Amino acid sequence: AYKRFSELLPKEQRENACSLRVPKSRILTLPELRANPFQHRICRVFSTSEDGDDSMSFEDFLDMLSVFSDSATSDIKSHYAFRIFDFDDDGTLDRKDLEKLVNCLTGQGEEARLSNAEMEQLIQNILEESDIDKDGTINLSEFQHVISRSPDFARYRGLQR
């Protein structure tokens, strides 16, 4: 992990990698993130940068790798997935978050976008399936409940080599 992190820095900075932050633009060059539709959210969630630039320290990088590793528990994976999908960082997945989530998964091109009616129907279906307390949003425990019924989720490897 240290070798991969330090390789994201210019050669002359590599020996000080533990004390430096790697810019988001360099993190996004990782093959595992390059094609990930949530790449920007992943950087936002794992970055501890006080500048809001989504740069990562070595510790941030380790946290990200550990969450996407085989050894991470389903609870840890679902907690971070929820944070990644919570685009406005308000602690719930509301209709706007779900729309952004669907758009990320289906692609941003016009031909891939769902019609307004299709999007509304899909969001309604998601909420009917997941919104246990019927408040119009999905909280972390509701999200984890849905995820617990999806065996594929626990096997998701994300950032592995």
From TrEMBL:
Highest taxon in the source lineage: Eukaryota
Keywords, sorted A to Z: Calcium, Magnesium, Metal-binding, Repeat
GO molecular function ontology, one term from the record: magnesium ion binding
SMART domains to which the protein is assigned, alphabetical: EFh (SM00054)
Domain EF-hand: 73-108, 118-153
Protein name: CIB1 protein
Lineage: Eukaryota, Metazoa, Chordata, Craniata, Vertebrata
